Amino acid sequence: MKKQLLMIALMISLGLSSWAQEELAPYLGVQIPGDISSLSEQIQDLISNEGFHVIGQYQVADRDDLLVLCFTREDLKKVCEDFEDRGALASVLKVALRKVNDSVELSLLHPNYMFYAYFGDDYKIQAPALKKIDQDAKKLIKGFGEAQPFGGGLTADDLEKYHYKVMMPYFDDPVELEEYASFEEGLKYIQDKISESGDDIKLVYQLIDERRQTAVFGIGLLNVELGEPSFLPIIGERHIAAMPYDIILQGNTVTMLHGKYRFALYWPELTMGTFMKIMSTPGDVEDAMESITEKED
Asked: DSSP secondary-structure letter at 295?
């Protein structure tokens, strides 16, 4: 009897271990007939029906065949308050529409993939709420057909401590862009600099919590030679639900996730050979973000 109980316990343990190591894809997608304009309206209605609201949208790389919608919800913003280390970056979800011949590929940036990566081992603090948000977001594409995971796969354990290679940055190795005298000064300075920027910089969304002195900005990088039009065709346009790139002002300091972390996280299948082709891109992104955050001497 003891042997049977031990065998049952072992089987349960192995089953739980297997479940725990299930890989999560960064994206879920489905290809459907139609055009981006009409499907975008349908998606926005679905977003609203699930209690989310769109806070920004843009044509990625300034192309009319690539569209991203950015959205959030009050419970998501509330949950992110529990994570002080740039947690607000996870408060914006994204869905993309990409024209493929006579169809459109609808893709969702997998919420739980992002949550595990950004919150790490602390995910469990808000696990029930985060899983509910993840499930509700997935409803946005389930109505169009059986969504297929794509873009690679990482386990929750891998995501919690993710980095691309040895000596590469982690989530908690951000790039510090600038410090200001106060949150209010930083917010106004960034907003003013963005408004003064040319066509290379596009403000897609801003999510501001003055009470917590936190602001997240989604920035479209449209420079033809150094931005999205240059690097996306190399690393894969199918992953556009990872865009736009974001920066976060917390208190008086504005930071961004390191490009060598963020690009690898959302393009986890990148070979070293392909990564080398965009070797200058993390620095180019940093330069672009400094252009709207760095104080002039």
From this structure: P
Contacts with 277 (C-beta within 8 Å, 6 or more apart), sequence order: 234
Q: Is 104 left (phi over 0), alpha (psi -120 to 50) or beta?
A: beta
How long is the chain? 297
For tokens 């736009």, name the residue: 244
Closest among 239, 265, 244 to 173, alpha carbons compared = 265
> How many whole angstroms separate alpha carbon 138 and alpha carbon 191?
32
Q: Say if residue 16's pLDDT is above 70.
A: no
Measured over the CA atoms of residue 24, residue 76, residue 206 and residue 172, the dihedral's sign is negative
Q: Which contiguous run of DSSP H or E holds residue 7?
A: helix 2-20
Tokens at 70, concatenated? 């950015």
Element (H, E) at 47: helix 36-49
> Which amino acid type is present at position 131?
K
User: Per-residue pLDDT tens for 67-84?
Assistant: 999 999 999 999 999 998
CA distances from 104 to 30, 33, 98, 221 (A): 8, 6, 5, 23
Does 12 score more than 80 pLDDT? no
| Under 8 Å between Cβ of 137 and 93 | yes
Q: For residue 8, what pLDDT is reported? A: 47
pLDDT band of residue 2 (cuts 50, 70, 90) is low
Of 97, 4, 116, 107, the C-alpha closest to 59 is: 97
pTM for the predicted model, two decimal places: 0.91
Distance CA 12, CA 249 (A): 45
Q: What does the mean pLDDT of the chain come to?
A: 93
Q: How many other β-carbons are positioned within 10 Å of the β-carbon of residue 146?
A: 8
